[in-house]
């Protein structure tokens, strides 16, 4: 991984990966680990032809950890990251052009007018079935 990428951890638990807008690597590199449900690749290439293709279905997927990826088109947010014990252990500011891969419980504060893309695995089962809300103990 490039120097500018920040792995956000609580001890050995990886909570998120922050990718600033000025991140740069040569050619193609994957920011996510091969075992992650979301594969995040970074391309920095000149003129090249990628042969037409499709991706095979993965038949044996069950009980995967849901990850989310945010790309900020414009604006500024604060991402709060929680560990397995539901304790807030880190915060990360994400600005225009930045991205973050979230692997843990999280809260988001939109700090100014923001446009962003959110990517997570589907299908979407609905809010009631998809989310567990964290009540941090004081």
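^ Assign residues to that structure.
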């Amino acid at each position: 991984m490039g120097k500018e990428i920040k792995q956000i951890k609580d001890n050995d638990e990886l909570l998120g990966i922050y990718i600033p807008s000025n991140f740069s690597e040569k050619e193609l590199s994957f920011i996510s680990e091969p075992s992650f449900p979301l594969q995040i690749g970074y391309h920095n290439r000149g003129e090249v032809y990628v042969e037409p293709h499709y991706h095979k279905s993965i038949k044996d997927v069950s009980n995967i950890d849901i990850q989310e990826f945010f790309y900020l088109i414009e604006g500024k947010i604060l991402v709060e990251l929680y560990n397995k014990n539901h304790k807030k252990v880190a915060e990360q500011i994400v600005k225009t052009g930045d991205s973050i891969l979230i692997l843990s419980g999280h809260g988001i504060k939109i700090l100014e007018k923001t446009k962003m893309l959110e990517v997570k695995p589907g299908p979407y089962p609905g809010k009631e079935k998809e989310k567990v809300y964290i009540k941090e103990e004081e």
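The two ends are 36 Å apart (CA to CA).
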